[in-house]
């Protein structure tokens, strides 16, 4: 029985190889589980597909940053060199597009990298010091050599006994029930 | 768990020995977590000597700020000399770091995985060293920002965007920022591993803060990989642009010997050339001291040597172009510069440059020489010297001879010039050795990924991939 | 590999380009040379147009040859599918043909090149300064010697590759690598010297250290576009359908992307350096080319040779579809015509209508004959290197 003030976060199974966790994720999806996550020491190729997870928000964030950077760079150069402080240098036109390309280009890269990276962490919900999954026994090896599959409780199919039994069928190294603060 | 079992052309494996995920973590993380490993003599001795030079740097900078840049040897017509030579030299060294991690990631060259972290760190410290020179060349850097950075100031003036010097400010600051971001993004999952491996609570907390709660969720990895790949994608043109812009500092002016169209790609090649030399110069002793020979293998050294040879040839081609078109142009100032280089008072430096960058690197054609560590190390040392000489040949040697013979004047460096230069070398080595001691030198999660790929019957695929790129 | 599919697919006939080329090439080349030598009032115009046509195809030949060398040096799997086409385009036949077609230019030095005009040389100190190296005998000699060396090297590489097809001997590949790696060094240096003679010296004074690199990268882009076009158009025909895969079109697309990027980078570098330096001689190149309608061609090239293919080749969907990639390649080849036109023609034509009918005649005339050489050389060998082990790996890699 659950301690007072806690609720179920999910049922976690521990595996020892990338192949095993991909197979497990596929099996869980085939069994009808929809809300799941896995925790692995390195990005396992094919696991996102097995979990049915797709996301393209990060590339768009980078692209948005790039466009914003380019426009901001050119706007700055125009404002500085044409509108606010026009001076004749070497007889060159005030708006020297050729000369304005290099700084604008650097702005494209700077904005894209910063906005994209910050965006990536933000969409991942990081930094986040506490997460219930850290309570799973042996979870410190998720960053080393173990692969954890968590079927999350907000999936209505997840039900402590049945789900544990299902996971047992996938031959994990261990199974644990992870709880969250209410 | 060895790559290349069928031994395509007798290549060395990318990961040597019998490794598991656990043994990789142990090899890499223990360098950080078992601090006793650093009480060895080589680490102590190198760090101590480097620290002495850090002090020389601080004294040189202190005296410079107190006294003014008159303590340096540069004076009209050679307004640029050691400061800009060293700036270009350091920036160039930094570029190999980004290239190794970014371009090779894009080309899916998995041999990069064991040296990318190391070379990214090299980039960051090299750019720090580089930035010091132009910053202190302004004399009083704390009042120079109004023409370096575009911010509304009380004088109502703005930077001059038609000047390559401002392009340079944008390029170098962007380069530093993006390199730092790329490096930190790569470190976050490894901080997570260190957090989970740490035994003392204080250390656990320390790594936990740096790891930002990284928990290895596949959803996070998914976005993380997208971001990492795109960062690599935008870092690659960034490297090209940064050194191109550095070269434009010279090329868009009309100094004879500088107004040369091939400067941008030729500078970029030179940067990669010097950078790979520096990577090997540092990686060879460190892999010996820390027993990383299974991770930084002969194959890595062989590849780096080949890239050095290629870029070295491009650089040498650049010298030929300068000479040929210097003559072809038939313009007196251009021809004078060429003759000044060949036969002028600095001629020894020019011919030494040809020896260092043109002749000695040709040793790397021989596969045997590429696998003989002392030879490779020697060539790298020669190349580092050669690339420094190249900038000497380009900068003060072009400035000391100009359109009007009346304005020709010799340039001699002072002791303070050498003080600051050797000081930055000390600073660089000092920072690198601190990095080796306190942060994971090799990317742990990528090595585990590589190990997994190699050990699952995809060895052939990797071998093809490694050869398939350029 | 889908062998069932392979058996049913119709066979690609790349060699049929040959007769078609001959059909267009022979009459138009006849007209060009005839006008040059028999019609004095057409001579200058025709000679200039002929030089443009010749330079385009000679550069494309060298682009094919350069990529062959590059392929043998790095031995990337992307190159195997187009290797036979590269070998045909930059093969001994095409190279000897271009040497032969240089002969009409030799007869027209006087109308084309300032250094061949004795009166001009006598009045110009810079031309005198160069006259020991840039003069009719030296330029002719260099051109033919270089073509001979290139053709011999191409023949050797091709034979070695054919030997390997027959015997499956892997050591041949290593031999080619050992030959091609220093070969690239030689190639880049000699191409630089050659285009300086052929094109840069059309202007008495102008010089640029970027010119050689531009003529290495631009034609390589054209050559790769042509070969990719042929592979993609025949994607569902045998034998290309056996090697066609997502990773192949992606690799070829990425390579095109890279070369296009380098083309833009080199051009922008040259432009920004000379425009900012603003010295009369170097900047004079852009002075011509930014007026009298040439500026439209320049702007058009920035947008349509660089930006449009840049974004097209960045799109994964285009790189995944042979059809779409073929369109991009066709477009790139058209832009290559325009780019070479923008480099060569303003050297001697500063005003007047820009594209003359003679330009088209010469371009198609030389091109037709070039295609004939290309087609005949393709016919002689299997369309891709069958016995190369790495092709199998390349397919597996997909």
Automatic annotation (TrEMBL), chain A:
Q: Where is the signal peptide?
A: none
Which Pfam families does UniProt cross-reference here? ActD
TM region positions? 56-80, 100-123
Q: Does the keyword Ribonucleoprotein apply?
A: no
Q: Which UniProt keywords apply?
A: Membrane, Transmembrane, Transmembrane helix
Q: What is this protein called?
A: DUF3341 domain-containing protein
State the organism named in the record. Fimbriimonas ginsengisoli
TrEMBL record, chain B:
- Native organism is Fimbriimonas ginsengisoli
Q: Which family does it belong to?
A: Belongs to the NrfD family.
Q: Do you know which InterPro entries this protein is assigned to?
A: NrfD-like
Keyword list (alphabetical) reads:
Cell membrane, Membrane, Transmembrane, Transmembrane helix
Protein's name according to its UniProt entry: Polysulfide reductase NrfD
Membrane-spanning parts: 43-66, 86-106, 118-137, 165-188, 227-246, 266-286, 307-328, 348-365, 377-398, 418-439
Q: GO CC terms for this protein?
A: plasma membrane
Q: What is the top-level taxon of the source organism? A: Bacteria
What is the recorded membrane topology of this protein?
Multi-pass membrane protein
- Subcellular compartments: Cell membrane
**Pfam families in the record, alphabetically?**
NrfD
UniProtKB/TrEMBL annotation, chain C:
Key words of the record: Membrane, Transmembrane, Transmembrane helix
Keyword flag Chloroplast: no
Q: Where are the transmembrane segments?
A: 20-39, 51-74, 95-116, 136-157, 178-199, 211-233, 254-274, 294-313, 325-344, 356-374
Signal peptide range: none
Against PANTHER family, the record matches this protein to:
PTHR43044, QUINOL:CYTOCHROME C OXIDOREDUCTASE QUINONE-BINDING SUBUNIT 2
Q: What is this protein called?
A: Quinol:cytochrome C oxidoreductase
Q: What is the lineage of its organism?
A: Bacteria, Bacillati, Armatimonadota, Fimbriimonadia, Fimbriimonadales
């Amino acid at each position: 029985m659950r301690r007072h003030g806690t609720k179920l976060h999910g049922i976690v199974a521990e595996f020892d190889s990338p192949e095993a966790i991909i197979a497990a994720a596929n099996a869980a999806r085939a069994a009808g589980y929809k809300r799941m996550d896995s925790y692995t020491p390195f990005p396992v190729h094919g696991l996102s597909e097995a979990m049915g997870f797709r996301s393209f928000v990060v590339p768009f964030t980078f692209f948005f940053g790039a466009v914003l950077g380019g426009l901001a760079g050119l706007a700055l150069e125009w404002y500085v060199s044409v509108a606010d402080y026009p001076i004749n240098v070497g007889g060159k036109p005030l708006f020297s597009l050729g000369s304005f390309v290099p700084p604008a280009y650097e702005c494209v890269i700077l904005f894209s990298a910063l906005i994209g990276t910050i965006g990536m962490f933000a969409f991942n919900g990081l930094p986040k010091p506490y997460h219930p999954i850290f309570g799973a026994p042996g979870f410190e090896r998720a960053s080393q050599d173990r692969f954890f599959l968590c079927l999350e409780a907000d999936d209505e199919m997840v039900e402590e006994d049945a789900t544990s039994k299902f996971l047992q069928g996938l031959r994990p190294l261990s199974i644990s029930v992870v709880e969250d603060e209410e | 768990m060895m790559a290349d079992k069928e031994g395509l052309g007798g290549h060395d494996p990318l990961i040597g020995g019998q490794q598991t995920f656990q043994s990789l973590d142990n090899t890499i993380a223990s360098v950080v977590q078992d601090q006793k490993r650093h009480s060895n003599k080589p680490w102590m001795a190198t760090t101590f000597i480097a620290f002495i030079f850090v002090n020389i740097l601080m004294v040189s900078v202190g005296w410079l700020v107190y006294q003014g840049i008159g303590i340096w040897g540069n004076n009209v017509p050679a307004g640029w000399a050691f400061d800009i030579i060293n700036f270009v030299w350091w920036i160039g060294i930094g570029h190999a770091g980004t290239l190794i991690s970014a371009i090779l990631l894009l080309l899916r060259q998995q041999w990069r995985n064991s040296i990318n972290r190391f070379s990214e760190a090299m980039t960051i410290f090299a750019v720090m060293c580089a930035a010091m020179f132009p910053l202190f060349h302004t004399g009083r850097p704390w009042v120079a920002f109004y023409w370096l950075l575009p911010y509304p100031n009380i004088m109502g003036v703005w930077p001059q965007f038609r000047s390559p010097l401002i392009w340079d400010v944008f390029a170098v600051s962007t380069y530093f920022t993006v390199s730092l971001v790329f490096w930190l993004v790569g470190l976050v999952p490894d901080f997570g591993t260190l957090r989970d491996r740490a035994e003392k609570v204080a250390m656990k907390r320390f790594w936990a803060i740096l790891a930002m709660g990284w928990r290895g969720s596949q959803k996070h990895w998914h976005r993380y990989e997208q971001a990492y790949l795109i960062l690599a994608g935008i870092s690659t043109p960034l490297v090209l642009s940064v050194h191109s812009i550095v070269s434009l500092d010279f090329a868009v002016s009309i100094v004879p010997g500088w107004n040369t169209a091939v400067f941008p790609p030729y500078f970029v090649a030179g940067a990669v050339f010097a950078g790979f030399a520096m990577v090997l110069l540092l990686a060879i002793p460190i892999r010996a001291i820390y027993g990383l020979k299974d991770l930084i293998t002969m194959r890595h050294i062989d590849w780096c040597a080949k890239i050095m040879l290629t870029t070295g040839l491009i650089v040498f081609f650049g010298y030929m172009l300068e000479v040929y078109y210097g003559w072809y142009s038939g313009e007196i100032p251009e021809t004078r510069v060429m003759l000044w280089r060949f036969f002028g008072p600095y001629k020894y430096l020019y011919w030494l440059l040809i020896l260092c960058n043109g002749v000695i690197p040709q040793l790397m054609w021989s596969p045997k020489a590429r696998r003989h560590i002392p030879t490779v190390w020697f060539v790298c040392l020669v190349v580092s010297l050669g690339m420094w000489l190249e900038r000497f040949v380009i900068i003060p040697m072009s400035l000391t001879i100009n359109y009007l013979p009346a304005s020709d004047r010799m340039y001699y460096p002072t002791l303070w010039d050498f003080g600051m230069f050797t000081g930055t070398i000390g600073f660089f080595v000092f920072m690198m050795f601190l990095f080796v001691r306190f942060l994971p030198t090799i990317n742990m999660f990528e090595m585990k990924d590589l190990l997994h790929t190699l050990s699952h019957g995809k060895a052939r695929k990797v071998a093809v991939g490694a050869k398939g790129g350029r | 590999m889908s062998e069932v599919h392979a058996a049913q697919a119709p066979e690609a006939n790349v060699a049929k380009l040959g007769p078609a080329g001959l059909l267009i090439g022979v009459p138009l080349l006849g007209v060009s040379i005839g006008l040059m030598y028999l019609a004095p009032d057409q001579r200058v115009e025709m000679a200039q147009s002929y030089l443009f046509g010749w330079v385009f195809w000679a550069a494309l030949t060298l682009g094919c040859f350069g990529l062959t060398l590059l392929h043998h040096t790095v031995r990337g799997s992307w190159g195997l599918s187009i290797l036979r086409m590269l070998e045909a385009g930059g093969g001994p036949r095409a190279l000897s043909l271009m040497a032969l077609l240089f002969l009409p230019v030799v007869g027209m030095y006087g109308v084309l090149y300032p250094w061949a005009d004795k009166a001009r040389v006598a009045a110009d100190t810079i031309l005198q300064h160069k006259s020991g190296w840039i003069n009719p005998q030296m330029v002719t000699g260099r051109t033919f010697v270089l073509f001979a060396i290139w053709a011999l090297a191409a023949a050797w590489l091709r034979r070695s590759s054919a030997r390997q097809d027959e015997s499956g001997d892997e050591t041949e590949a290593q031999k080619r690598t050992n030959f091609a790696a220093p070969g690239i060094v030689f190639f880049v240096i000699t191409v630089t010297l050659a285009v300086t003679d052929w094109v840069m010296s059309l202007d008495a004074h102008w010089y640029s250290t970027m010119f050689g690199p531009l003529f290495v990268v631009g034609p390589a882009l054209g050559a790769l576009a042509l070969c990719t076009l042929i592979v993609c158009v025949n994607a569902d025909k045998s034998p290309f359908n056996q090697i066609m895969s997502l990773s192949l079109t992606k690799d070829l697309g990425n390579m095109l992307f890279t070369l296009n990027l380098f083309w833009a980078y080199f051009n922008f570098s040259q432009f920004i350096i000379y425009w900012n330096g603003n010295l009369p001689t170097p900047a004079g190149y852009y002075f011509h080319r930014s007026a009298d309608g040439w500026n439209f061609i320049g702007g058009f090239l920035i947008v349509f040779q660089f930006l449009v293919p840049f974004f097209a080749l960045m799109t994964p969907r285009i790189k995944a579809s042979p059809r779409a990639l073929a369109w991009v390649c066709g477009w790139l080849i058209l832009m290559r015509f325009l780019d070479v036109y923008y480099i060569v023609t303003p050297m001697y034509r500063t005003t007047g209508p820009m594209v003359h009918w003679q330009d088209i005649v010469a371009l198609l005339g030389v091109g037709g004959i070039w295609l004939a050489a290309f087609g005949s050389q393709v016919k002689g060998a299997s369309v891709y290197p069958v016995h190369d082990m790495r092709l199998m790996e390349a397919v597996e890699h997909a």
